[in-house]
Amino acid sequence: MINNKYKRLAVAFTGPSNSGKTTLIVKISNILQDSGAKVAIVKHDPKDKAVFDKDGKDSFKFSQTGADVAVVSPNKTTYFKKETSTIDELIEIFKEFDFLLVEGLKTLPLPRICICREKLDEKYFEVSDTLAIDDTIDKESIPEGMQILDLNDPEQIVQWIKENAKKV
Fold this sequence. Notes:
Elements: E1 9-14, H1 21-34, E2 39-43, H2 58-64, E3 69-73, E4 76-80, H3 87-94, E5 99-103, E6 112-116, E7 130-133, E8 147-150, H4 154-164, E9 166-167
Parallel strand pairs: 1-5, 1-6, 2-5, 6-7, 7-8
Antiparallel strand pairs: 1-9, 3-4
């Protein structure tokens, strides 16, 4: 049974590599958690590059068998599943949270913040609800009607998330 005390709001972040998505998500997560919120984060790894265990460790050996593996310790559970997961499956795994922050997965129908530094990447505009930019972006080059957030003001971005995140 889902505990109704949690808000279960989701928002996504998109943008080119090295635009600052991870740095911003860390700042947002810390602000939300400092205010007492429970945060869950999903990171898309489209090139399957992430490494979660070291060769030679037991969990690595178990994972190499092809089985799904869970490693349970006093302070965390790590889950290795041999297939991709839908966002709904991940929400079910996390269950109780106030805010779900998603990096990437631009096809998900979630309110989305596009992070741009140095240059605008217009291919993200059609899947984004707002832009988070810094002083390296010329505001005159932004399409009319596109909402702008200050990438260097995470509190402003948290406020946007609280007002626009989707209940999941």
